[in-house]
UniProtKB/TrEMBL annotation:
Keyword Iron among UniProt keywords: yes
Name this polypeptide is given: 2-oxoglutarate (2OG) and Fe(II)-dependent oxygenase superfamily protein
Entry's family note: Belongs to the iron/ascorbate-dependent oxidoreductase family.
Keywords linked to the UniProt accession: Iron, Metal-binding, Oxidoreductase
């Protein structure tokens, strides 16, 4: 067996500043070893279930006039699942679609433009990279990321990539409003005043992690994102129509098919322990 120098391969990938998309563009037909998940670590596909037996995270309509019922549903979903999907959230479909198109345009854009933003300096407001934990994780994920810190210290408009500047600015404003709505509902779900979580500044940060998963030549032995929990207070996730997201619930991995017009809300580690049904 040929000698495998994982560190050298990681540095070689990093040095290209083109990420996984660069491998695809170069005509890669088999996975470099750094991306291969060991057989004993692969999560088997769940058995096919009849439609009537399928379960998924609750979908909650935030536009309902019955606020008490919405708060009750948010509490139940947060306590039992740690996730919920929200519709009636006030973010127009056109803005959601524009954001997805803009992120795709960035990742599929010119390599020289992306290379200018390529960095592992976490202090930067805007950066592009392949795997934030490239040198720490045991398996490299098949994904590239555009990382944008929009609050509390936002970048200037000129710092944002041309391909997604306008979409980011509009999306940031509207998702910030949605986040405040969710913090209000969660505050009430905890039996507190509706402004409690925002009063203690849980809503001050806003970071966009814009993931891109290029077509993979061997998807059966790779993974887009390793299993993890989110360390913050709240994650608001916009899926495209591709799917592939799973969550761990009651000892099993459950598919989360995209729901048109919905956001997925993930209760982060900092908030999770508070949401216990009394």
């Amino acid at each position: 067996m040929a000698t495998y120098d994982r560190t050298a391969e990681l540095h070689a990938l990093d040095a290209t500043k083109t990420g996984v998309q660069g491998l695809v563009a170069s005509g890669c037909t088999s996975l470099p070893r750094i991306f291969i998940v060991p057989p004993d670590k692969r999560i088997p596909l769940p058995p096919a279930l009849p439609t009537s037996a399928c379960t998924s995270i609750p979908v909650i309509d935030l536009s309902s006039p019955d606020r008490k019922q919405v708060v009750k549903e948010v509490l139940r979903a947060s306590s039992e699942w740690g996730f919920l999907q929200v519709v009636g959230h006030g973010v127009p479909q056109a803005v959601m679609d524009s954001m997805l198109d803009a992120v795709r345009a960035f990742h599929e854009g010119k390599y020289e433009d992306k290379a200018l933003l390529y960095s592992r300096d976490s202090e930067k407001a805007i950066m592009y990279h392949c795997n934030f934990d490239l040198y720490q994780s045991k398996v490299t994920n098949w994904r590239d990321t555009l990382h944008c810190r929009m609050a509390p210290d936002p970048p200037t408009s000129e710092e944002l990539p041309d391909s997604c500047r306008n979409a980011l600015l509009m999306y940031s404003k509207l998702v910030k409003e949605l986040g405040n709505t969710m913090f209000g509902l969660l505050s009430e779900a905890l039996g507190l005043g509706p402004s409690y979580l925002t009063d203690i500044e849980c809503n001050q940060g806003q970071i966009f992690v814009c993931q891109y998963y290029p077509p993979c030549p061997e998807p059966e032995v790779a993974i887009g994102t390793s299993q993890h929990s989110d360390p913050g207070f709240l994650t608001i996730l916009l899926q495209d129509c591709t799917g592939g997201l799973q969550i761990h619930h009651d000892g099993q991995w459950i598919d989360v098919p995209p729901v048109p017009g919905a956001f997925i809300v993930n209760i982060g580690d900092l908030l999770q322990s508070c949401l216990v049904v009394s």
